[in-house]
Amino acid sequence: MSGLTSIVFVIDDDPLVRDSVTDLLAATGFAAQAFGSATEFIQAKRPDIPACLILDVELPGLSGFDLQVELTKSGTEVPIIFLSGHGDIPKSVRAMKAGAVEFLTKPFRAQELLDAVKQALVRDGKFRRERADTLELRERLGTLTPRERQVLALVVAGLLNKQIAGELATTEVTIKAHRGRVMRKMQAASLADLVRMAEKLKVSPPPSSTKVE
């Protein structure tokens, strides 16, 4: 499956449903990989590309909801579209609250499923980009010295160089130098850019620091 830009996983124990769904996906240009059980899906090697999961609720062994829980526990983020043979509002609410993209009752309209797949793949692509951005920011943060991290936290808290110098018992000239290195290492184009990075990384100031009024 090399060269794929996205993939749709289909899990249903009914081979007729599996085949009809995968045929529909193939006919509309989506790559798909089908499984007969949740266990098969868990054990399979899957490409690291934007993906979504079309998942039957009523599966033998590990149910669709059980798999949703297991994926969440393992930190596997994949948007799920549930399929069910029974219109069940409590089940639908449970699935959506746990993060599912859609809950469709069989028989479902083809366009409903395709719309849900498009939405799910867009969501996963966005999540992957955000995660990659965050990982890159963490790598940049890791290049800062302990003192530079202190300066970063105080800068994004809104303190001036003079106040930061007082907090850290040093000079303004020293803080200015640290601040410049922080900006370069974090590749921040402006203070606002640095603040956005710090918010994404959840950088917080020391308890003793005070913001500018």
Question: How would you describe what is shown here?
Answer:
- This protein is α/β, with parallel strands linked by helices.
- Helix content is 54%, strand content 11%.
- It has two domains: 7-131, 3-Layer(aba) Sandwich (Rossmann fold), CATH 3.40.50.2300; 142-201, Winged helix-like DNA-binding domain superfamily/Winged helix DNA-binding domain (Arc Repressor Mutant, subunit A), CATH 1.10.10.
- The chain contains nine helices and five strands; from the N terminus they run βαβαβαβαβααααα.
- Helix 3 links the parallel strand 3 (51-56) and strand 4.
- It is elongated and about 75 Å long.
- The N and C termini lie far apart (57 Å).
- Residues 209-213 have low confidence and may be disordered.
